[in-house]
Design brief:
mainly beta, five-stranded mixed beta sheet, 6 helices, 30 strands
Length: 474
């Protein structure tokens, strides 16, 4: 009876941690922390993974911790691997998270379910698999895409869980279509994360979007003034290719695009607007296409419809940068709670900006350390003058020049309306909250996730080697 009481007490304590104190983990001597991973699984719950090397058993372990809304923390069932896999995608809800993992060494694809309520895991392993060219996810599913040899055949995994997934293969027909798709895949398209708001978005010319049961692949061509869209129906593997011209009468200096709710939004910058009476006036055009209907909804110049309602100094600064060759125009959309579209156009320095920078906090500072090492190698290969060199710049994202941006709101019919800033996804200045951790050598293997009003993070104390899970109000 006494043993049972102690057993019950132990379970209670392991599932009920005092939220006033950080949750602590001390690894035994045979376990070495290699990395960590943090994600939000709901508005106020999070999941934190420790990737640990077990030197005795010669295994890799994922130690998994679930943090409740009141910060009570539970360790869930450990996941063991013969070789260390990398995380490709994750999706789920507050009950369960599904990860897709890939191990380069064994060429193994792994689907892993972690049940937050029972603490149990479930896996499905697929051997002899190539690493996907595209790995993308939303809240309900993950999608992996491989282009098979010769470029004619596609292999797609549509994954809901480790026990519920669909593998489909199909072949392209027609030389013209094959050539078009080959151009999209000459560089792996950049997967666009629409589960959160990324302020500047991607500056890549090739992108991938997941919209319901449709996978969109796009490529922008500034010289041809067009965006080419390749759509794959995931429920009934079929394909559709379309080309959308933004203008037939003049050239764009730069172009970028964004897909949101089966609509294609394209921005093209012109020097100058050929239809303006002021031929010294820079301008930009927005083109909106309904991809479901393959129809043009609207095409308008910013100076004629948007900028007349915005203070002159804001839009002038944006247009004045039209001719800057190192700057890439950006476009992103954040849906508002009133079903309007919060539109943002801006620019980023092509030599400095990385789209993943805005959500790299999901991963660990190790990524930054790797970049620092590469920067160091590059600098060592470049002749330098006399004087000290501050290599800490590898840890910064300081721009040489402040770049202009403009925000405005469109309704569902793509009409300009008054400001609506009550957006679905918050625009969190993550740099501000992460700065103290980047500069402090105490934090090792750090990762964090952000909710609307809270930041949760896991790290190892560089001196004591104790691992902590903590929270900070934003």
């Amino acid at each position: 009876m006494r043993k049972n009481i102690f057993a019950v007490l132990f379970i209670f304590l392991s599932f009920s941690i005092n939220a006033a104190n950080p949750f602590q983990i001390e690894l035994p001597e045979n376990q070495k922390l290699e990395s960590s991973f943090s994600i939000d699984v709901s508005a106020n719950k999070s999941l934190h993974l420790l990737m640990v090397k077990n030197t005795d058993a010669k295994l890799w372990n994922y130690r998994v911790f679930f943090v409740e809304s009141d910060l009570k923390t539970r360790e869930l069932e450990t996941v063991d691997f013969d070789n260390m896999p990398s995380i490709l995608t994750f999706h789920g809800d507050e009950k369960q998270t599904t990860f897709t993992l890939y191990c380069e060494k064994s060429r193994t694809l792994i689907f892993l379910d972690i049940n937050h309520q029972t603490g149990k895991k479930q896996t499905h392993v697929l051997p002899n698999q190539d690493k996907p060219e595209i790995a993308i996810h939303d809240r309900q599913k993950s999608v992996l895409v491989n282009v098979m040899s010769s470029g004619l055949n596609f292999q797609i995994f549509n994954i809901q869980s480790s026990s519920q997934f669909l593998k489909s293969e199909f072949s392209l027909s027609g030389t013209a279509l094959l050539n078009e798709v080959s151009q999209i895949f000459d560089v792996d398209p950049q997967a666009i994360n629409q589960n959160e708001y990324v302020k500047s978005g991607s500056i890549a010319s090739q992108k991938a979007y997941l919209s319901g049961n449709k996978l969109y692949l796009t490529k922008d061509y500034a010289k041809q003034r067009e965006t080419r869209v390749y759509m794959i129906d995931l429920e009934h593997p079929t394909t559709l290719f379309s080309t959308y011209n933004s203008s037939d009468n003049f050239k764009f200096k730069d172009i970028n695009s964004y897909i949101f709710n089966d609509h294609l939004f394209v921005i093209g910058t012109a020097i100058p607007n050929p239809f303006s009476s002021d031929q010294n006036k820079n301008d930009a055009m927005i083109t909106v296409v309904d991809l479901s209907q393959k129809s043009l909804l609207k095409k308008f110049w910013l100076s004629e419809e948007v900028f007349k309602n915005i203070p002159n100094e804001k839009y002038k600064a944006f247009l004045d940068q039209n001719g800057e060759t190192n700057y890439k125009v950006t476009v992103t959309i954040n849906k508002t709670k009133n079903n309007n579209l919060k539109f943002r156009i801006g620019r980023e320095n092509k030599l400095e900006y990385n789209y993943y920078y805005d959500w790299w906090f999901h991963h660990q500072f190790m990524m930054m350390n790797q970049q620092m090492m590469m920067n160091q190698q590059m600098m060592n290969s470049i002749p330098r003058g006399f004087g000290p060199c501050d290599d800490t710049r590898a840890f910064s994202n300081i721009k040489s020049k402040e770049l202009a941006s403009v925000e405005f709101t469109l309704d569902a019919s793509i009409n300009l309306i008054g400001d609506d800033s009550d957006t679905t996804y918050p625009n969190i200045d993550r740099d501000k909250y992460l700065e103290e951790f980047k500069e402090n050598k105490k934090y090792k293997k750090f990762t964090a996730c952000f909710m609307a009003n809270e930041m949760r993070y896991i790290y190892q104390d560089n001196k004591t080697k104790v691992i902590y899970i903590e929270s900070k109000v934003l």
